Amino acid sequence: MAGHQREFSFKDEAGSVVQEILRDYQGGRSIDRVAAAKEPDRNVIEKIIRELFQIVYPGYYMNPDTSLRVFNMDASISTIVDDIIINLSEQIEVALRYTDEFHTKSAESVQEESQRVTIEFMHRIPRVREYLDTDVQAMLDGDPAAYSKSEIILCYPGLYAMTVFRLAHELYLLKVPMIPRMMTEYAHDKTGVDLHPGATIGKYFMIDHATGIVVGETTIIGNHVKIYQGVTIGALSTRAGHNLQGKKRHPTIEDNVTIYSGASILGGETVIGHDVVIGGNCFITASIAPNSRVNVKNQESLLRKDIDDPLMWI
């Protein structure tokens, strides 16, 4: 019949959508890569993180199937370590293909380098644990709401983020591309703490309440530093974009500094001297001398006494 509209077919339309999307993949853009096997696998990276927690905090994060017992400690650790080494070396091998150095090298040489880096990383775990032990102590000493180290290890998102960061930082130092950032972004998603794996953070680092904290790539933080929720240690205007890569863009925070919630400290030339206290909501783009106290001038709050007035609070 003239003018008769084609009858709607859910199955046909679904197939049409699939073909339309597949055609769109042929654009040759960076977002059109369909060879997923050539990319590091996020699921595998997350599995590696969970297994690393079992190594870093034995007895706290064990898988029930590989639960540590006194009589099988060696076997359990050996199993977990073997699994990490196999999976991590495979992911590093994939990631190394992104570097100019290994992009054109043979599969054998890339595999050899990935295995070497993986073993070197695993050798560094005792040092990572040394630093994390000081972070746990700092949180216990600095937070009156913390009743035990076990509570901190199992419950505190700040320590979780720091653990992933300290592990990712070692891979960053070993020049592993992409994977360190995948690790810290996984922790960012879980905790709200955004720590770039390139940052340098000393011992006894305390994150209190955690949510909304940002620490940029070239940040340098000393020992015994304490920061609260909502703190940003970031860069000034990045209009130069990618041309700033490799340059010092983020502040240096010296020892024994406390930074309260909502403060922003910006700029690669900004140095916060030792024993400084920075009050909440401060916005700092210049260096602060040691032993200083920085605060925002208190705003005046007015209270209307007429309780029937809808503008009682101003």
Question: What features would you describe in this structure?
Answer:
It is a single chain. With 314 residues, the protein is of the alpha/beta class. It has two domains: 36-191, serine acetyltransferase, domain 1; 199-297, Hexapeptide repeat proteins (UDP N-Acetylglucosamine Acyltransferase, domain 1), CATH 2.160.10. The protein is 40% helix and 10% strand. It has eight helices and 14 strands. It has a five-stranded parallel beta sheet with strand order 1-4-7-10-13. 29% of the residues are buried.
Describe the secondary-structure layout.
Layout: H1 10-24, H2 42-56, H3 73-96, H4 107-123, H5 125-142, H6 149-155, H7 157-173, H8 179-191, E1 194-195, E2 200-201, E3 206-208, E4 214-215, E5 220-221, E6 226-228, E7 232-234, E8 252-253, E9 258-259, E10 264-266, E11 271-272, E12 277-278, E13 283-284, E14 293-294
Parallel strand pairs: 1-4, 2-5, 3-6, 4-7, 5-8, 6-9, 7-10, 8-11, 9-12, 10-13, 12-14
Low-confidence stretches: none
Rg over CA atoms:
25 Å
CATH superfamily assignment of the largest domain? serine acetyltransferase, domain 1
Ends: how far apart?
A: 71 Å
Secondary structure: number of strands: 14
Number of domains: 2
Number of helices: 8
Mean pLDDT: 89
In the CATH hierarchy, what is the class of the largest domain? Mainly Alpha
